[in-house]
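Continuing the series of single-chain predictions for the mutant panel. This is the parent chain; the variants come on the following pages.
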Amino acid sequence: MSLYNERKKTGQLTVADAEAVQDKINAINKEGKDKTVEIEAETLAYQKKYRIKR
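Parent structure:
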């Protein structure tokens, strides 16, 4: 069992534990936002290309 889970079970989570979890969440959210921006950029490029052909 990880140190984090052990502390969670005994109710002894520290501020550092909470910050580490928040950092992981932030990293996951940033990755998701980056992917969304990438997809939006590809969509715009496709729309422009399509409009020019028409």
